[in-house]
Amino acid sequence: MEEERRRQLLKLARESIRTAFSGEQPEIPASSEEYGAFVTLKKDGQLRGCIGYLLPIAPLDEQIARLARSAAFDDYRFPRLKEDELASCTIEISLLSLPLKIPSVDAFQLGKHGIYLTVNGHRAVFLPQVAEETGWTKEELLAALSRKAGLPADAWKSPNALFEVFTAEVFSE
Fold first, then answer.
1. Confidence (pLDDT) at 29
2. pLDDT at site 25
């Protein structure tokens, strides 16, 4: 994606959050692009909110505006973002390739792929950049992914474990 388009999406994400404090709606340009996407907020380098979808749910601009607001206000792991926090937050957008089922976790490449785990109806996902940001080994990442899904750390080893991988184009302010 071209740099100018990346800047437009980042600006839209920030504007979507800013206008939410006053109850306004941002102006959302019409777009035909479709991607799975995540919007991540970081404050002082630490995760402050992250919401996304593996598959496209709407045209890209509409989806980014919606995800930005959700990352700010609806991520159950964090309190709602306060208006005075927004200036100290950076926004990161991840545009995803379509997920690809893999026959086993051996096909998962740490740092290249994001991974989506399903075990007996429990699901969790990590974006590709999580490995680099945490410094986890492949086994540590898979254990954390299992726990994120509400399962024991070794659930990823289950014969019932299903894996999908994807790549991401990641850009931030």
1. 84
2. 83
